[in-house]
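Input chain follows. Return structure tokens only.
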Amino acid sequence: MPDNNDNNDEDDLLAQFPKIPEMLHSLEFDGPFERCTQCHEQLGTEDTFQLQKVMKKGEPIMEFALCEGCHDELIESFSEETKNRLDDYYQENAIADFSVDTCIFCGIPRRELEEFNVSGHCVSDRLLIGSCICFDCLMKIQPLLSKQTRDSRDRFRERNFPGVPADARPMLV
């Protein structure tokens, strides 16, 4: 007979994390994301998933959820050069704690921003880590992306958001 204490330990561990804030809920589905935008599989209660929104003047321009497998596949398509550059940039320039409330690079509160990208690394209904990056800081990051990475990001956008123009505001995935 399985030991239910393992499930209780996992529930206790998850309880220390905040619930996914409404900021990261889906406008399209009027509540929490339920399915991966790319593969359409239901987001699990045990596997992690990524949520991301590109916001302008309080409205989502683009929003998506990626299951762990689809997110890993996308990140693996990025060049090693880009991954190293982004990691170095975060290490050298992040000034704020990872939070959906403040840009991690310049510290401006989200409520003062007109354009920003907000994302979360989640499991079940819990936010493990979130981030907010303002438009100006996103623009500083764009030159760090190699052609291979920009092409991968653009293919992702074309596949999942066919009406969004190629020159739409930048997004990080």
